[in-house]
Write a structure and sequence with these properties.
Blueprint (H helix, E strand, L loop, with lengths): L12 E4 L11 E4 L5 E8 L7 H7 L2 E9 L6 E10 L6 E8 L12 E7 L8 E10 L10 E10 L2
Antiparallel strand pairs: 1-2, 2-9, 3-8, 4-7, 4-9, 5-6, 5-8
Length: 158
């Protein structure tokens, strides 16, 4: 995921996944620091090849997914917010939010998936705004926080 974002603590770092995530092309992750690190991306559905009539009339399912986890020796927090936006990029037509319970220190270091399917969301959707954030819970300098990988936005035409 590209896009802007907050660089809390020591910012973001790209690392190898501690545990592989099945069926993913890349086995790297973004690792957060000791204050909230935020990443966002705005996906222009028209530039991606969809068209207004398709989005307004058929309203194809828009599927989002994110994988996140902690490092074994440090706890973390994670949240995600995905919004379907209108042409002005400000009108929120539909929204999904999830805030995780904190993962404690000395955990299994496995990834957890968060996913959601937007259906029958209404007319006017032109953008998907994808935002996730994470941090570690012990306030250690470095990159010991939430690991985020395989972020996905997919439009399913049936």
């Amino acid at each position: 995921m590209g896009g802007g974002g907050g660089r809390g603590g020591d910012g973001w770092k790209v690392e190898e996944n501690g545990f592989p995530v099945d069926d993913t092309p890349a086995q790297t992750c973004f690792t957060t620091s000791f204050h909230w690190c935020v990443k966002s991306q705005l996906v222009d559905l028209l530039k991606e090849g969809l068209w207004e009539e398709l989005l307004d009339t058929y309203q194809p399912e828009i599927y989002i997914s994110d994988w996140w986890g902690a490092q074994e020796d440090c706890g973390c927090k994670y949240s995600i917010c995905v919004r379907l936006l209108g042409a002005n990029k400000r009108t929120v037509i539909a929204e999904f939010q999830a805030n995780s319970d904190a993962i404690q220190q000395w955990n299994d270091a496995q990834y957890h998936q968060v996913s959601y399917r937007f259906r029958q969301y209404g007319r006017g959707v032109r953008y998907v705004h994808f935002l996730h954030r994470g941090k570690e819970t012990r306030f250690r300098p470095g990159h010991y926080g939430a690991r985020i990988t395989n972020s996905t936005v997919m439009v399913k035409l049936s």
